[in-house]
Structures are given as structure tokens and as C-alpha cells.
């Protein structure tokens, strides 16, 4: 995903995607989301218009992935997903965000290098563990993501101790957004851990992947939270 691999001109024909198996369609929808989410969960500066574009894109992919789950030949839904894919991969949804996080992609690349798994499915399998590992260091972004992408603001939680209903805290809203993302992945038949992905790495393999992650990024990667080899290993273990 760089300027060297982006065409100067392209014609997007959604009909060419209609022969894709449902699984690969879901993998594609997941990867489209992830390329925007990698740019979204960052520390420091972001731009309001870029956030709005990113959040609108995510909502659009979620809505149309659900449509395609019931009607794989729906031209309008495939057109929306294809256009979202172009916008998500051309850097538009990261303008002003400092480049993005990209830890999930690095974690998945090592999984895909060791095991025969689809890229989108691998991303879905690792994302929840990564999100729970880093969200406290990037709470405002996870909070905003939950509010704007998943409409968690309307959720209330029952408090047995107080005997009444109360609004969710910022952290609870952030965690609810993570949970809803994982629920959506399951809804479109994507895995949310390595077991559901169909692989069972040994501790030795997890250690090897974590080491290669660190080597591949010069020691550390991440914007939501700077991660090193020990962090990579902890996330892999949590995803089992």
C-alpha cells in the first residue's frame, strides 16, 4: 500500500467481484475497514473532516457487508464496497493523522507468513486483542469510534449496586465499541481469535512471530501505543 502501487487511472467495475466466494468478500470488507482503522487510532493530531470521512466509510462498509451477506449479487452494495476500498487504500482516510498505527497489519503479516490464512481474516483475528491491549493509551479515539461508528451513546447499563440505570463511562463506551466490532466480524463469518482462524501456534511459534515483528519494524511500531517485541508476544498470546 504505497504510491508506487496505486494507479494513475482506474475503472472500478463491481460486477467483476460478483464471483467472489462469500468468505473472500468478507475478508475484503474487513481489510477495507482495517486500512481506515489503522489510520484512525492514532495519538496526537487528527482532522475533523478526515475523521468524518473515515467514520462514514466504516459505517458504509458495515452496512453493505451485511447486505452482501444476504444478497451476494447486490450490485449497489458491491459498488459501495468497491469505492470504499479505493478511498480506504489511497490514504484519504489518514490525511492529517501522521501516517497511522499499522501494528495490526504487522502482527497479521507474520501470522500470514507462518500459516496459510487470508489477510482479512487474519486481521479480524488479531484486532480485538490488539485493541484491548492499547485502548487505554488511546482512549479518546476508541471512545469517539464507539460513539460515531457504532452509536454506543444510546446504550445504558444496569447497575445492581445502585439499583438503577446509569450512563456508560468513557472507558465502558470504548470497550463496547471494541465488542461491537468483534460481533460484526462474527456476523460476516470472520474470526476474532487465532482459534477461530483455524490455527493453533505453539509458544515457540508465537515467540518467533513476535521477534520477526520487532525485526521488521526496527524494534517498535504503533501510534495508539508504541509496541515492541514483548508487546507483540502479549497480543499474540491474548489472541489464542
What gyration radius follows from the Cα positions, in whole Å?
A: 18 Å
Give the name of the CATH architecture: Up-down Bundle
Count of discrete domains: 1
State the helix count.
10
SSE ordering: HHHHHHEEHHHH
- Specify the helix fraction band: 55-70%
> What global shape is seen?
globular
- For the record, the CATH class is Mainly Alpha
> Helices and strands: which structural class?
mainly alpha
Regions with little confidence, pLDDT below 50 for 5+ residues? 157-162
The N- and C-terminal alpha carbons lie at a distance of 28 Å
Kindly identify the CATH topology.
Answer: Dehydroquinate synthase-like, alpha domain
Q: How much of the residues is beta strand, in percent?
A: under 5%
What is the number of strand segments? 2
Largest sheet: 2 strands, antiparallel
User: Looking at this structure, what is the CATH superfamily?
Assistant: Dehydroquinate synthase-like - alpha domain
- Mean pLDDT, to the nearest integer, reads 93
Strand order of the largest sheet: 1-2
Amino acid at each position: 500500500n504505497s504510491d508506487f502501487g496505486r494507479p494513475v487511472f482506474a475503472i472500478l467495475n463491481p460486477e467483476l467481484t460478483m464471483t467472489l466466494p462469500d468468505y473472500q468478500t468478507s475478508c475484503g470488507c474487513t481489510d477495507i475497514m482495517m486500512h481506515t482503522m489503522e489510520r484512525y487510532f492514532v495519538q496526537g493530531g487528527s482532522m475533523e473532516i478526515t475523521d468524518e470521512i473515515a467514520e462514514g466509510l466504516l459505517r458504509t462498509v458495515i452496512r453493505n457487508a451485511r447486505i452482501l451477506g444476504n444478497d451476494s449479487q447486490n450490485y449497489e452494495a458491491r459498488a459501495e464496497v468497491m469505492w470504499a476500498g479505493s478511498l480506504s487504500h489511497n490514504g484519504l482516510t489518514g490525511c492529517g493523522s501522521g501516517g497511522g498505527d499499522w501494528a495490526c497489519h504487522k502482527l497479521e503479516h507474520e501470522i500470514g507468513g507462518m500459516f496459510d490464512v487470508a489477510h482479512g481474516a487474519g486481521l479480524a483475528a488479531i484486532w480485538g486483542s490488539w485493541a484491548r491491549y492499547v485502548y487505554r493509551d488511546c482512549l479518546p479515539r476508541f471512545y469517539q469510534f464507539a460513539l460515531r461508528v457504532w452509536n454506543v451513546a444510546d446504550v445504558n447499563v444496569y447497575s445492581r449496586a445502585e439499583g438503577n440505570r446509569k450512563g456508560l463511562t468513557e472507558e465502558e463506551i470504548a470497550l463496547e465499541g471494541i465488542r461491537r466490532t468483534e460481533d460484526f466480524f462474527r456476523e460476516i463469518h470472520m474470526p476474532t481469535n487465532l482459534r477461530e482462524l483455524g490455527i493453533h501456534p505453539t509458544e515457540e511459534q508465537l515467540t518467533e512471530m513476535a521477534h520477526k515483528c520487532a525485526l521488521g519494524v526496527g524494534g517498535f511500531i504503533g501510534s495508539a501505543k508504541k509496541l515492541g517485541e514483548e508487546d507483540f508476544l502479549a497480543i499474540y498470546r491474548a489472541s489464542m
